[in-house]
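Model it.
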Amino acid sequence: MSETNAPSAVVDTNVFVSGTINPQGRSRQVLRAWHEARFRLILSDRQHAKLITVFARPKFIQQFRITLIELIELIARIAGVAPVVPSSSIPVSLRDPKDEHILRGARRQSRLPGDR
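Modeled.
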């Protein structure tokens, strides 16, 4: 499946971190599916910047078993995703208001009725 006709998906920042530092588990499976272009990643502009900042931290090489090459490749793939400008509203309230920009990015990408 090419990325152009693959479904779109929003992935929480914690899934990126967990999938990167833990080679087992569902988070790694999600990242593998993204690497295999089984879905097109949607990132809000704010999440895009946050992911690059988080993965540029020295602890990812010092504390976790990640090579510099793996980290550079991940940052390059994230940098290659065009961020979307989030919608001004979301249809539900979230437990963590800091994550609203992620859902607003998905809403903007889906172009739901009522989006501005």
